Amino acid sequence: MELAAKDLRSSEHLLLAGNQRLTLQDLSAVAPIPRVVVFNACEAGPVRGQAKLPQYESYSLAEMVLRSSVEAFIGPFWEVGDDAAAAFAGEVYTGLTAGLTLRDSVTQARQQLALAKQNDWINYTLFGDGRFRLA
Q1: Where does the CHAT domain start and stop, copy by copy (predicted)?
Q2: What pTM was computed for the model?
């Protein structure tokens, strides 16, 4: 599952196409739980902060996803540029479709951003099991 949004800094929802919102409650109802989740939005990676919905014991959308038993989560820790976000996602998916593990795909994507002199090469965080591989 990949979710791309502009900014998660002060929000308890993702703004999707057509101005639809994806909330913590929506995420808690997703079934079956995806194995890998990518939030390709500014500051999607931090997992601690002020509680948004204490009944879920989660402090961010990222933490909500991590607590839902997904195998892996990827998100940028800081603000990310649109070009870097698109390039990172493209490289990760290219690596996965070529048979790389998620960990190796993320590493390859970071390296490509660094080679392109994109400062966001260090921005993306992989939480969880990086051994995921497309079958």
Answers
A1: 14-128
A2: 0.76
3-state secondary structure of 54: helix
Measured at the alpha carbon of residue 19, what is the angle toward residues 7 and 78, in degrees to the nearest 5? 5
In a domain, 133, yes or no: no
- On the CB side of 36, CA atoms within 13 Å amount to 21
Kindly state whether residue 80 falls inside one of the protein's structural domains.
Answer: yes
Tens-place pLDDT, residues 51-69: 555 555 556 667 777 777 8
3-state secondary structure 82-132: HHHHHHHHHHHHHHHHCCCCHHHHHHHHHHHHHHCCCHHHHCEEEEECCCC
Total tally of structural domains belonging to the chain: 1
CATH number at residue 112: 3.40.50.1460
- At 36 the three-state DSSP class reads strand
User: Is residue 135 in a domain?
Assistant: no
Token look-up 């933490």 returns 63
